[in-house]
Each structure stands twice: as C-alpha cells, then as structure tokens.
Specification:
single chain; alpha/beta; Rossmann fold; two-stranded antiparallel ribbon; 8 helices; 10 strands; 22% strand; binds 5-O-phosphono-beta-D-ribofuranosylamine
C-alpha cells in the first residue's frame, strides 16, 4: 500500500502503468527510473491496444507487458473480460500505485474499487473543467485563455476523483488543437513524475481522510500547482 510505503521509504514505489497509445508519459517514467531520479520500479505495463508504441518502449526497458487488446483477431474483448485479466495481472505484480497514462478505456466501479492499489489518471484539462475527450479542440472553440493538465484519483465517475496536481499554460491566439496538444503534453511530462515523487515521498497522500478533509490535516490544499517556465 502507498501509505505504508511512504513510511518505509527506502524501497522504490512499485508502479503499474496502463496505456493505450504512444506512451511518451510512460517513457518519461522509464527514463526517470533508469536515471535514479524517481524512487520507483515499474513492475508492469498493461496495454489495451496491440499496436500501441508503449509496448515497444516497455519491451526496450525490459518491463513486463500484458497486451489485453480490445480488438484481438477481429474479436472485440468486452470490458468485463478485459477487467478480469487486468485484475489478475495487477494482483500478480503487486503494485503500490496504478497509473493510467493515456489509457483510453472507461473502467467499471467494481474494477476501481477492488483494484490492488490506488489509481491515478492523467487528464489533459484543468479539472473539473473539460472532463472527457477532445479537450484541446473544446478549449479553442470556447476561446479559453488557460488550459493545462491534471492528475486525479480514479473513481467510478469519469474524471471526477480528487484532483491532486495541475500544471497550466496560457492559450496563445495562434494556438490550434494540435499545438495545444503538444504544449499540454510537455506539461504532462513534468507533472507526472513530479506527482509520483510527491506520492513516493509522502508529501501527497491518497488516504481518504486527507483527500476529503484537507483543512484539518498537515496536507497542503489540493490541487498542488506545478509552475513550468515555457
Ligand atoms: C496524453 O496527452 C493524455 O493527456 C491523454 O493521452 C495522452 C497520452 O500520451 N489522455 P502518451 O501515450 O503518454 O504519449
């Protein structure tokens, strides 16, 4: 468990990462782990797409990978089957923390509630604003002046768990959905390792009491903001 881990902080935090795509955020964690810059051990990666470049990144780093493709050999794997396999795999890896980094399937409440470790998700907006998909396009259409990314606790309601950390940027007049995606992703690459470091060091806690009752604890008010010069 994460809380007991932070008390005995000599051992690396065991992390499982769920991915669906390119895995640039996974790569940042791999690099930080290999450089000794983050006290983590990535114990396994689960991909729900067999064509995800994340798989190559994990293989290159000798990290165990489970590919639970949602369309294997033309047959669609239902979410229940995916979750049964993913649960078994996660339990075998015994992570302290599960990180959804560009993972694009919606998970059921029973999977989330019974997961063997707390789960956090990286979302490309300043939550609670712009939950869901196509956030960059919607930001441009709405003429927003600020945008960014958030890391939140995964709960049954989509993108609605306690927001732990955020990084933000100013939207430029010349920005497009594509340029925002690139700029937000650069923020994500700093926000994710920073957040995991805070969790590993116990500066941030996923203890329920601390998440819901922040003003009565020693914990800082959430979300914590990472300021990035860009
Ligand atoms: C990230 O930009 C994240 O915000 C979104 O999916 C993207 C994943 O990127 N949910 P990568 O696979 O880590 O490169």
């Amino acid at each position: 468990m994460l809380d007991s881990h932070t008390k005995a902080n000599n051992t690396p935090l065991r992390i499982a990462v769920l991915v669906s795509g390119s895995g640039s955020n996974l790569q940042v964690l791999i690099n930080a782990m290999q450089a000794g810059a983050l006290p983590i051990e990535i114990v396994g990666v689960i991909s729900n797409r067999e064509d995800a470049y994340s798989i190559t990144r994990a293989n290159d780093a000798d990290i165990p990978v489970a590919v639970l493709s949602h369309v294997a050999s033309g047959k669609r794997m239902g979410i229940k089957t995916f979750e049964t396999h993913a649960s078994a795999q996660l339990s075998a890896w015994q992570p302290d923390l599960i990180v959804l980094a560009g993972f694009m399937r919606v998970l059921s409440s029973s999977f989330i509630d019974n997961a063997p470790a707390p789960m956090i998700n990286l979302h490309p907006s300043l939550l609670p604003a712009y939950k869901g998909l196509d956030t960059h396009q919607r930001i441009i259409q709405a003429g927003e002046r600020h945008h960014g990314c958030s890391i939140h606790v995964v709960t049954a309601e989509l993108d609605a768990g306690a927001v732990l950390t955020q990084a933000l940027l100013e939207v430029h007049q010349k920005d497009t959905a594509d340029s925002l995606q690139t700029r937000v992703q650069q923020l994500e690459h700093q926000l994710l390792p920073w957040t995991i470091l805070l969790l590993a060091k116990g500066v941030l806690s996923l203890n329920n009491e601390q998440l819901s009752n922040q003003q009565h604890t020693h914990m800082p008010m959430l979300p914590l903001r990472l300021y990035v010069n860009h």
